Amino acid sequence: MDHNLQDTIALLSHTPAALNALLRDLPDVWTRRNEGDKTWSAFDIVGHLIHGERTDWIPRTKIILESGEARPFDKFDRWAQARESEGKTLPQLLDEFARVRGESLAELRRLNLQPRDLARRGRHPALGDVTLSQLLATWAAHDLTHLHQISRVMAHQYRDAVGPWTAYLGVMHCEGHSA
Amino acid sequence: MDHNLQDTIALLSHTPAALNALLRDLPDVWTRRNEGDKTWSAFDIVGHLIHGERTDWIPRTKIILESGEARPFDKFDRWAQARESEGKTLPQLLDEFARVRGESLAELRRLNLQPRDLARRGRHPALGDVTLSQLLATWAAHDLTHLHQISRVMAHQYRDAVGPWTAYLGVMHCEGHSA
Q1: pLDDT range class, residue A179, cuts 50, 70, 90
Q2: Chain B, 86-125: which have a CB under 8 Å from a chain A CB?
Q3: Chain A hits for B4, Cβ within 8 Å
Q4: Neighbouring-strand partners of residue A131
């Protein structure tokens, strides 16, 4: 299926409310525990999504529109949220994510991207040539990969509690498939 | 981690609103497409969750409390939703899931389960001996395995659109791990 900007915007618009409804006021056992050493909790993942709004999606969109392939994207810091989320509560992060996502989408609409813009190329420091269309599709898919991760991290907390039913629960057998 | 009934109830209480916020009013490309032959769309999965409320979790809880291991659980029909969801819209299914989940949780609270109840045993037709505690933990983990699945089915629709970024998106490499 081809990328469709309106479908992308629709999905990006839903994610903050979906995470809010899933996570707000849940016991810490669901939101603050991870899968072990150097893995992320749901709390960490919301922080990562906030960092992406600030440094990844719209900034990279502007690099493509302004400089094309001449200027590679800045690298993305996958551990920045440990610093930026420190001392905050999960409800604060959920509010912050909703706000910065709203700002990103307002900026995206202001750019009023046309098909010729979506076909423009940029340079990813590791992946090489990419298009703006691919960047924006990835923004939406990135929300989904982290919703996928959050559901797995939460399920992990009940790995022992479900007993033999673990055989029927695909999420318990997922290792995340990270590159 | 041990099973905690209050943590289970907290999670079960959040799922309908989370699915509602994620899915309601999204374009059909996200909610009605699946991963290919004999796979499920988000629409199908919400129907499956409704069927579980009607025939699985509370009915099996009552079988354990009333008959213990003497009466095996009825088998669960994994394709019932194709029939039961026919002609309905996704918003109707989301409303229905919220209603039947609310009824299930009201019934669960009425049962006022104590530790000795949670330790009672039942018989699964394929898995053999299980406890009520394991059944209730599985109810929560089952929500999460389907949230994991929904995020994967949705991401699949952008498999081509993300181009080389697929390498960094774990969800694109997940095959579901179903037994």
Answers
A1: low
A2: 124
A3: 29
A4: A121
The interface pTM score, or ipTM, of the predicted complex is 0.96
- Separation in Å, CA of A23 to nearest CA in chain B: 8
C-alpha–C-alpha distance, residues A69 and A112, integer Å: 21
- B39 to chain A, any CB pair closer than 8 A? The answer is no
CB environment A54-70: b (16+ within 10 A), e (fewer): ebbbbebbebbeeeeee
- Phi/psi for A81 (5° steps) reads -65, -25
pLDDT for A116 equals: 96
A170 in reach of chain B (CB within 8 A): yes
Number of C-alpha atoms within 13 angstroms, CB side, residue A107?
14
What radius of gyration do chain B's Cα atoms show?
Answer: 18
| Nearest alpha-carbon partner for A41 in A23, A16, A54 | A23
Q: How far apart are CA A60 and CA A65, in angstroms?
A: 9
Our measurement of the distance from residue B75's CA atom to the centroid of its chain's CA atoms, rounded to an integer in Å, reads: 16
Contacts of B29 in chain A (CB under 8 A): 1, 4, 7
Q: Does the structure show a pLDDT above 90 at B178? A: no
Distance CA A101, CA A97 (A): 6
- Among A3, A148, A164, select the one facing B152 at the smallest CB separation: A148
Cite the DSSP H helix spans in chain B. 5-23, 28-31, 42-55, 57-67, 80-84, 90-111, 115-118, 132-156
Summarised one tens digit per residue, pLDDT across range A116-136 is 999 999 999 999 999 999 999
Given a cut of 80, is residue A69 above it in pLDDT? yes
Record the tokens describing residue B127, joined without a space.
């898995």
